[in-house]
Amino acid sequence: MIEKADLDAAIAANVMSEAQGAALTEFVRQRHQVAMGADEEHIRFITSFNDIFVTIAAVLLLVAVGALGQRVDTWFSALGVAVAAWGLAEYFTRQRKMALPSILLLLAFVGGVFVTLGAAIVKITGVDNVQPDTPQGAVYLGIAGAGAVAAAIAHWRRFQVPITVAAGAAALSAIAFAIVASIMGEDRNALLTAVSLSGVGVFVVAMRYDMSDRQRVTRRTDIAFWLHLLAAPMIIHPLVVMFGVNGPGMAAAEAVAIVAVYLIITVVALAIDRRALLVSGLAYMIFALQTLFKETGDVDLGFALTCLVIGLFLVTLSAAWQRIRAVVMPLVPRDLAERLPVVA
Q1: Which candidate among 63, 74, 145, 227 keeps its CA 20 to 30 Å from the CA of 343?
Q2: Are residues 164 and 116 in the same domain?
Q3: 146 & 131 share domain
Q4: Residue 225: what pLDDT?
Q5: pLDDT level of residue 36 (50, 70, 90 thresholds)
Q6: Pick from 39, 62, 58: which is nearest to 50 by CA?
Q7: Are 281 and 313 in contact (CB under 8 A)?
Q8: Spatial CA neighbour of 269 closest among 217, 328, 221
Q9: CA end-to-end span of the chain, whole Å?
Q10: DSSP character for 93?
Q11: Is the domain of 216 the same as that of 278?
């Protein structure tokens, strides 16, 4: 992947002209399309099997550090994991630039900082079992979230792993949730609305990254992918809960509403050319269809029909993604469509 900042620096240093930079970008885009297909979302998870090997080793090491630290206290265990994750990233991320281990180590570092602060606050105050939807719990969550944001910023400046932006966005969302919880208390609808609006905010940021890299040849497309993956469940889950879904007792009308929401999400996913939105809402779609097909009175038949319908739906989307996009894109406002990926 070519980073736009590197191209700009090369142009500024007179290594190449602006025309040459544009030509190089177009060459890489076409080369990627030939190599992986024009309608693929290319996200780099592994470069070789060594990525998997290192990831397994890192997991074992972090688990060992956490288990040993737990003999002292939870905050000490989490701190040890965070420190170990940063140390491993200095080699495997900064020097070796290994994708999968870098993702793991980023999550371990930011998560370790979050748990460290949360556990330390609980230890200092001596209050256990604090719920996040109480004023006191909201304060704790906000402090831990602020620490996680700072950790994500520091990690980004040092290593620039694409998923870091999504981790920081998740921490910021936790702070927003904490603020709403401290004001509204246990108002369920207010808390769900806060989560959903945070998800919309993350989606908007993801779209800004996507629109700044329409050709999807820079690191920005990876950043956008992780943001979309975070935004989708934050938007969908509160909507589903506010529909009144109540588990096994879900009514047929509620199931139909979920299916309708999923179909709307499908249209949005096609327009912006991002399959991550569909994956995040898939569990709700399965649950809703299972409810509807239970009307047949045969549980096994209902399950089989659910798998059949969803399987055919996803296979059709996968096989004809760009052809279906070609039908959807004329419905998108022209100004917006011109900033979205071109239909291949």
Answers
A1: 227
A2: yes
A3: yes
A4: 92
A5: very low
A6: 58
A7: no
A8: 328
A9: 20
A10: T
A11: no
Tokens at 9, concatenated: 């620096």
325 in Cβ contact with 271 (< 8 Å)? yes
Quickly list H helices, the chain. 4-12, 18-36, 49-69, 74-92, 99-125, 135-159, 163-184, 188-211, 219-242, 252-272, 276-280, 282-293, 299-319, 321-328, 334-337
CA distance 268 to 271: 5
Q: What is the DSSP letter of 185?
A: T
Q: For 31-35, 154-158, 173-177, which range has the lowest pLDDT when averaged over its residues? A: 31-35
Residues 196 and 55 in one domain: yes
138 shares a domain with 162: yes
Task: Kindly state the tokens that stand for 321.
Answer: 């993604």
Host H or E run for residue 45: none
Could you tell me the two tokens for 254? 């509620």
Lowest mean pLDDT among 13-22, 132-141, 285-294: 132-141
CB contact at 8 A, 73 and 116: no
C-alpha–C-alpha distance, residues 222 and 216, integer Å: 9
Domain boundary among 189, 219, 239: 239
Residues in the chain: 344
Residues 277-286 pLDDT 10s: 888 778 888 8
**What is the domain extent for residue 11?**
1-36
Assigned domain for 265 exists: yes
Phi-psi sector, 244: left (phi>0), alpha (psi -120 to 50), beta: left
In a 10 Å sphere around its CB, with 0-12 CB exposed, 13-18 middle and 19+ buried, how is residue 19 labelled?
Answer: exposed
Closest CA to 161 of 273, 41, 43, 272: 43
